[in-house]
Amino acid sequence: MAKRLRCMGLLARETIREVLIHNRWFHVCVWGLLIFVLAGRFLTDLPLGSSAPKLLYDLGQGTIMSVSGTVLIILLSYHLLNELDTGAAQTYLVRRVSRGDYLVGKLLGCWLAVVLLVFLADGLLAVLVAGEMSELIESGDLISALGITGWLQLFLFQLLHLLILASLTVLLVSISTSFLFAALSSLLLWSAGLLMGAATDLSGSLEGLGGFFIQAARFIIPRFEVWDVSNSIWYAGTLPVSEVLRTGVFGLLYGSFLILLAIVCFNRRDL
Amino acid sequence: MEPAIRIEGLSKDFSDGWGRKGHMALEALSLDISKGELVGVFGGNGSGKSTLLKLLCGLLQPTRGSLEIAGNSPAKSIREDLIGYLPERPGFPTYQSPRKLLTLFAKLSGLSGSILDDRVNACLNRCRLESQADVPVVKLSKGGIQRLAMAQALIHDPQVLLLDEPMDGLDPLALEGVEKLVQDLRDEGKTVLISSHLVRGMETLCDRVLILHNGRSIFFGPPDFEEGMESWILKRLRDEEAVHG
C-alpha cells in the first residue's frame, strides 16, 4: 500500500509541477479568473445599497466555480488523453505503477492545481466582500459580516464539488479516446447536474414521458447542486457541523465510487 | 529450464466492442524463448510486431491464449520489475531533462537513495546521454529521444527487454551505438525481444528470428539463411503476399 501511495504521490507531484510551471494556458486562466473576480468590484460602484456585497459574492462565486470547473475538465481530459496518445502514459504503466495508481495520481495532480486556483480566487473575493461589508456595517446598513468559518466551509464544499467533477471526467476519459467527447460530455453532465434541482421541480408539473425521464436522470446524473452551498452560507453565516460532515462523507463516497468505476473501465482498455 | 518467455496460442483481435468483426492483429502464436536469448521480430507494417510486444508488457489484453514471463503473468512481471519496454513512439514531457525523467522513472520503480543516483548516472552513461543529461527533451534529436527511451527501459535493471523499433530513424552512427548496446545486454544474460523493420546487420545479432505476416508466424528459428536474411525474408513475405494477399 505504501508503494502505491508513493507512486500516486510522485505522479500527482509531477502533474502539479507541469500544470503550475509549464502550462501557459493554465497561467492565462489563473490571471483571467483573478481579473474577472476583481472586475466585480466595479459593479458595486452602482447605487446598490446593502445588496452590493451579495451581488459581488454571487458574481464572484459563479465565476469561480464555472471557470475552475471548466478548467478542471479541459485540463484533466487533455492531460490524460494526450499522455495516452503520445505514449508517455505507457512508459509509466510498464513499471510498478498500476493503471489505478496512474489515474488517481493524475486526477489528484490536476485537481490540486485547480484547488490552488480556487483558493487564490476565493481569497481575493473574500477580501473584496469583507471591504464592501465593513463599509455597510460602519454605516449601520448591515448587521454582521460573513466570517472566516463560513468562507472555509464554502471552500471545503468547492473542493468536494471539484473532486466529484474530476472523478466524473476521469470516468469519461477511461472509456473514450477522444478529447472532445470526454470534455464535452463532462461539461454536459456537469451542467445537467447543476440544473437538476430546477428540473426536478419542473418534473412535478410534467406528466408522461417527460416527467419520467427527468426522474430517471435524477438517479443517474451526479447532482452537483448539492455541493453549491454559497446561498445557505451567505444567509446562515455557517452551516451546522452535522450537515458539513454528512455532505462531506457523501461527496467522498460518491467521488470514490466514480473513480473505482473509472479504474475498472481503464483496466479493461487496450493501450 | 523454465523459458524466459512462454507464449501459447496467443491471439489478439481488435474488435470494436459492438460485436462486429475487427482486425486480427495476431493469430495463434506459440513459442518459447530461453533466458539470455536475443530474438528479432520482423515483418511488414501491420504484421503484429508491436502488438506482440504490447501484449507481453500488459498494455494489451489477449483475446485468446496465454503468455508468461519467467512463469508470471505480464501484470505480475511488471510489478516485480522483470520487464523493460521501449515503445515504438516514445513520448516524454518535453520540458523535463533526461536526468530528471530517469530519476522519476527510477523512483516509480522503487529505487531510492544512492542506488537511485548510481543507476541514473549509469544509464545516462550507457546510453551516451551524459552531455545532454540536463537539456530539456524538446531540444534532443530523434536519436537522443531514442537513447532516452532505451535508458528508461534499462533504469530498473530488468531481466527481459522488449524493444519496439529501437533503431527507427537513427543515423548510421547512432545505429551502431544501439547495436552495440543490444549486444552488451545479451552478453549480460538479459533476454531481449527486438522488433525492427531493419533487417541488415540483425542476423549477426539475433540468436533466433520470428517473422510475422498478417499476424501469423511464418518462421521462427536461427537466422541461418544461405541467401542472407534480408533476401530470405523478402522472398517469404512476397510468397505469403501472393498466396494470402
Secondary structure layout plus pairing:
The complex is a heterodimer of chains A (271) and B (245).
Chain A: H1 2-22, H2 24-43, H3 52-86, H4 88-93, H5 99-138, H6 148-174, H7 179-194, H8 196-205, H9 209-220, H10 230-236, H11 241-267
Chain B: E1 5-14, E2 23-33, E3 38-42, H1 49-56, E4 64-69, H2 74-79, E5 83-86, H3 98-108, H4 113-126, H5 142-154, E6 160-164, H6 172-187, E7 191-195, E8 208-213, E9 216-221, H7 229-244
Parallel strand pairs in B: 3-7, 3-8, 5-6, 6-7
Antiparallel strand pairs in B: 1-2, 1-4, 8-9
Helix pairs in contact in B: 3-4
Structure description:
The complex is a heterodimer of chains A (271) and B (245). Chain A is mainly alpha-helical and 271 residues long. Chain A contains 11 helices and no strands. In chain A, α2 (24-43) packs parallel to α5 (99-138). Chain B is of the alpha/beta class and 245 residues long. Chain B folds into 2 domains: 1-82 and 161-245, Rossmann fold (3-Layer(aba) Sandwich), CATH 3.40.50.300; 89-157, no CATH class. Chain B is 34% helix and 24% strand. Chain B is built from 7 helices and 9 strands; from the N terminus they run βββαβαβαααβαβββα. In chain B, strands 5-6-7-3-8-9 form a 6-stranded mixed beta sheet, sandwiched between helices. In chain B, a hairpin with a 2-residue loop joins β8 and β9 (216-221). The longest helix of chain B has 16 residues, at 172-187. Chain B is globular. The N and C termini of chain B lie far apart (39 Å). Classes of the chains: A mainly alpha (271), B alpha/beta (245). The A-B interface holds A 3, 6-7, 10-11, 14, 18, 21-22, 83, 86-88, 90-98, 268, 270-271 and B 14, 54, 57-61, 78-79, 81, 83-85, 87-93, 95, 104-105, 107-110, 149, 152, 156.
Which term fits the overall shape of chain B?
A: globular
User: What's the pLDDT, averaged over the residues of chain A?
Assistant: 87
Rg estimate of chain B, integer Å: 18 Å
How many domains of chain B? The number is 2
Mean pLDDT of chain B: 86
Total beta strand runs of chain A: 0
The CATH homologous superfamily of the largest domain in chain B is called P-loop containing nucleotide triphosphate hydrolases
Classification by helices and strands of chain B: alpha/beta
CATH topology of the largest domain in chain B: Rossmann fold
Radius of gyration of chain A: 20 Å
Largest interface: A-B, 25 and 30 residues
